[in-house]
Amino acid sequence: MSYILSGMTSIAVLTVGTFFLGTDKLMIVDFAFFWGLICMTVGACFYILQTGFLDLFFEGFKKLSTVAVPKSRSLIETDEHLKKDPSLRAWKQSVFLQGKSLFLGIGSGMMSFSFLSLLFI
User: pLDDT value at position 40?
Assistant: First the structure.
């Protein structure tokens, strides 16, 4: 629901902004497409991080850093407790979900605005 809401909000803001700004309409369309692509890329990054696709990659860098910089036992125990904490995991998942839906919604709204406005310019 928030995905659709953020997409519709971005379309409405861009439509109102086109009428009140004195700039060229084609420049606004280009601006909307550019920032739509950036928002879609950030949303795709949130999606990839949420799926855990890069976890193995990040674990390799963690192992390399422990070889270069040794950790104390208390820091290792704290890291283990944080990995097992269900409330922290739930918070991370909700942040990734909200970020993904926000950026993908805004990006798709801006890109659909640019595509639709190209038809009517």
Answer: 93
